[in-house]
Amino acid sequence: MVKHKRVREGGQAARAGRSPKSVPSMPLVPVKIVERMASSASGVVTVKTTAFEDQQPGTSGLRKPLEVYTRRNYTENFVESILRAVGPDLKGSSLVIGGDGRNHCVLAATIAIKMSAAKKVRKVVVGKDAILSTPAASNMIRNTSSIGGILLTASHNPASDFGIKFNMSNGGAAPTSFTDKVFEISKELTEYSIVPDLNIKLNRIGEFFYKIGNEDFVLQVIDPVKSYVDLMKEIFDFPKLKNLLSDPKEPFKIVIDCMNAVTGPYAKEIFENELCAEEKSVINAVPLGDFGGGHPDPNLEYAKDLVDTMKEGKHDFGAAFDGDGDRNMILGKEAFFVTPSDSLAVLADHIGIIPYFQKNKVTGFGRSMPTAAAIDKVAEALNIPFYETPTGWKFFCNLLDQNKIALCGEESFGTGSNHVREKDGIWAALAWLSVIAQTKKPLSDIVTGHWKKYGRHFYLRCDYEHVDAKAAKEMMAVLEKEITSPQFVGSSLLGKPDICFIVKAADNFQYTDPTDGSVTKNQGLRVMMEDGSRIIYRLSGTGSSGATIRVYIEQYEKNVNRILEDRMKVLKPLVEIAISLAKIKKFTGRDEPTVIT
After folding, report:
1. Which end of the chain, C or N, has fewer beta carbons within 10 A?
2. Which of 320, 261, 266 is CA-nearest to residue 292?
3. What is the pLDDT of residues 348-369, one digit of tens each?
4. Which of the residues 94, 133, 146, 155 is marked catalytic?
């Protein structure tokens, strides 16, 4: 039988875990019981099930159409596979659960809690209403010394998708070795364990105790916002940022678009309540199960309303965040767009102004391979080590844990530091505001000044979404054979009008992790030119159906008389070469990409 008892007013604070030396340790929010709950249940039940063959996690967990996740036992099977992969260490441990608030999130959280209780987890820490942004979840895992966290999110995918991923005890996404184990378990699954009658409610903050057989189980429902806000206040100079946003003589107007996703409550508390930005500076701030009908991907296409608002010229700074709060888009007045590659490089060049990095040494920088090489120039100038990794934040985690890097980012709108083990959208916006407050320059002037100093990496990404997976793989195979042939290096690639690029090198990117020597192969096809330009082709691992072909175009320009030219015009010849070289139209039937960023 399961018995539930009410904790005395004020609750019992969770055991504070030890954080790594360079990370501020934030205590859990004190809990207050607001509701007495009576509970009885039948205890642990074993449920027969049938294995699914399609539960192989991608770059960041298992993402599928929502209709797939709502099939009988589909969610339960994948959660069971995760818990079994963690193994016997689950008994007596703490586990964090939370999500981005999309449809199915509360039900999936409830299932995961009941299944964790069946595995003799001692405590589950969950955000109220199952809300917990991905960076906040990473912080919570670290602060509570939890064995890991089950994150219920499909990130920047639309509401028609759902996703589940597991983050390890360091707060970072599970490595390939773990997700491979999950997949192998899922293919052989015949049953799962659950406490089906566990009486839980996620809409009340509090700490609740249960007895399941002879085992104690604690459910702590927390304010998902406060601990994260406290962390940001440790990292940034909030009084200085407040002066910037609330100066009545020179009002600095911002607009923060949360896209009806998880960051709404966080952004309202930070930008409007703590930093005193004008009321309604934070828009689309209520997390909705369907994201208000929008697509929670912060790019020029899906955050068009923000772009149009910034074009009016009434605001000095704009930012948008994705479904689970780990991605960001940064805009200046009149919708001046900062590419994620430039954003990373500019923040690297100004990293010393952030209080956190005044106290903690900047040991190195990292970027994913497809990300433009702008930060490479900064690292060289500052004499700071630099690392190039495959796409996927998990590859940064080893470097962060070994204190080899302090700042890292990806071209896919992800920027972060060693304060957590995930990219962090709100952190990136606060970092940019810190640079603006320190330099007292408009955002556009900061970026163009960076180009004048280091040169400009013109950059473009073309996404061909939901293409036939078989055709996409065939295209990549044919292309790899061509670019790795002996005669390809040294050949001339001609673009219109009469522009010639000489191939310096070409390969399928392979990464050797400097921390453990592990090798990761087949991470993207690279065509590198003698002038520093690059064309990169990848199949994305974050889609929920079909395949997504990503084509990255980069061209370096150090002539100060050309750095302000239109990027689409500059890159057009190289784009045409990239499309022709891969025979994209032949293999996909597409005349144009789905999204250009």
Report:
1. N
2. 261
3. 999 999 999 999 999 999 999 9
4. 155
